[in-house]
Amino acid sequence: MSGDLRTTAASVVSWFLLNIAIGNLNGWILKHHGFSYPVVLTAVHMLCCWLLSAVCLVTILPPADPRPTPVGTVAKVRTLALAFCASVALGNIALRYIYVSFAQMVSAASPFFTMLLMGAYGRQAILPRASYSAIVPMCGGVYVCATVGELYFLYARLHRGRRLHPAP
After folding, report:
1. Which residues form a coiled coil (predicted)?
2. pTM of the full predicted structure?
3. Domain range for residue 130?
4. Which of 40, 73, 75, 108 could cysteine-pair with 142, CB 3.0–4.6 Å?
5. Which residue in 44, 50, 54, 53 sits closest to 89, CA to CA?
6. How does DSSP classify residue 96?
């Protein structure tokens, strides 16, 4: 494996594992520790992201071209950042009421709904047909894994004779 391919693979695997860990930790903090401030949790999350990103930009990934960013690009990035922050905040609020596996299923449906919206706006020609067929195993795989995990958990709890505690 070449160096670039290893870096890419390591980045994707670590991103995948960290996303799972963050979702589970957020749910654990909000449900099992009675932390009733999901927006504060989001603010701490965003602050840590900003600090770690700054450290990475200075040490690991300095920009190749340090010229100032055009104003139009900054406005687009700002809009994306606000949408991302709102998404994380609302996701943290939702984790107080739903299971993490259900939240992961909803998140996995994002590409599907993105493609539906692209079709509604008449931009279907942007993606090749293979993209549409790739959505089924991608979204469906997460649904199956989350459902099987929940069913196994339900079976294990019932088999051991313990009471089930529904999401608050």
Report:
1. none
2. 0.57
3. 99-168
4. 108
5. 44
6. T
